[in-house]
Amino acid sequence: MGKRVSDMEAAGELNLDDLLMVVVGQKNNYKITFGDLCEQVKKQLKIPDVVESINISEKLKIPDGPVIKEAFDNINDLLISAATYTGKPIGMSWAELSAKVKTEDFTGLHIGDYIDIQHTDGEEARVELSGFNTYMNVGDNPVLTAPHLVFTYRDCLKDTYKMNQTNDNTGGTAAAELTTTVNTTIYNKLPADLRAVIKEVRRLENNKGTWAWASRKLWLLQETEVFGRNNWSDGYDGGGIQLPIFAHSYRHIVKGLGKGAAERGSRANWWLASPSSVYATAFCIVSSYGHASSHYASYSFGVAPGFVIC
Predict the structure, then answer these.
(1) Listing from the earlier edge strand, what are the strands of the sheet with 124-132?
(2) pLDDT tens per residue across span 79-127
(3) Interatomic CA distance for residues 65 and 86, integer angstroms
(4) Residue 61 sits in the same domain as residue 169
(5) In terms of DSSP H, where are the helices of the chain?
(6) Which residue from 58, 74, 194, 209 puts its CA 20 to 30 A from 84's CA?
(7) Total structural domains within the chain
(8) How far apart are CA 147 and CA 226, in angstroms?
(9) Half-sphere exposure of residue 197, counting CA atoms within 13 Å on the CB side?
(10) Do 14 and 126 share a structural domain?
């Protein structure tokens, strides 16, 4: 309960509910507290409220200083994590991981965590967690509505592949020979327990001057999914969103040929699904230097596919 001003020794003792005066009216009496006075002073001087939020869209609202610091610290932690985090093994089987994901339980999982696999031909590879629910509600028919994880290869497969036998990008992604090879031949080399949990999804593909939906289980990444924007591709790239693993750092963009190659300092050009918008002879690539580029379709470069598990 507040005190009367006359009962205080100094103004510094005032609390918001302390009584300053009573205004006697004809019908009612009005009590004026120290808090009432403060509110009127704030209104007259147009002093904004301090709120525990970083939402500053409301008029006369400013965020609390510690809240701002925490927000910037969170962003800084994200940037540092992207540049330094090399991931940890996901200590469960594909079936166990799938069961966990189905309940949208992502606890204990982080972008960059990985599972080592062995293809049916004996080749070993590391696949990294690259996104949580990245393609949620995307697709023409069926729409992907299930909780899911996106995985990509940490390094390219050890063998290189041509996008097409000739230097031609007519028909773009759908017509490219490598698109079919990835979605069939390479997919069929995945271990059976992984194939059992892979979700076939609808992909909006850049088909050189147009686009179309297609069903894919294993695919080449689009330029926008790696770099977050069009560099050598055009607006028909349907990916649209950069995968979180490639944001803020080139650490996971630069790849070598074969498992562990990048960690050993080996680098390779690797194919993207997007046809070049500049040349009729080329598709987009990630260069061995890490930057976006394009190259003749008949050249042999690395392959680092992506897939979704549910």
Answers:
(1) 114-118, 124-132, 149-153, 306-309
(2) 666 566 778 999 999 999 999 999 999 999 999 999 999 999 999 999 9
(3) 33
(4) no
(5) 34-45, 65-84, 94-102, 172-175, 177-181, 192-195, 223-227
(6) 194
(7) 2
(8) 22
(9) 20
(10) no
**79 part of a folded domain:** no
CA distance 163 to 179: 8
| CA dist., res. 100 & res. 48, Å (int) | 46
Same domain, yes or no, for 51 and 141? Answer: no
189 lies in the same domain as 51: no
Chain segment 45-59, per-residue pLDDT in tens: 666 665 555 555 555
Strands annotated E in 209-281: 211-216, 270-275
Mean pLDDT (the chain, rounded) = 87
Q: What local confidence, expressed as pLDDT, does residue 39 receive?
A: 76
- Residue 239 sits in the same domain as residue 207: yes
Question: Do residues 201 and 135 make contact, with C-beta atoms less than 8 angstroms apart?
Answer: yes
Q: What is the predicted pLDDT for the residue at 291?
A: 96
3-state DSSP assignment of residue 251? coil
Report yes or no on 295 lying in a domain: yes
Q: Sorting pLDDT into bands at 50, 70 and 90, what band is 38?
A: confident
Task: Give the pLDDT confidence of 168-183 residue by residue, as tens digits.
Answer: 999 999 999 999 999 9
Q: Which residue has the higher pLDDT, 148 or 24?
A: 148
Q: Is residue 226 domain-shared with residue 115, that is, in the same domain?
A: yes
| Residue 254 belongs to domain spanning | 87-309
Classify each residue of 206-242 as buried b or exposed e, where b means 16 or more C-beta atoms within 10 Å of its C-beta: bbbeebbebebbbbbbbbbbbbeebbbbbebbbbeeb
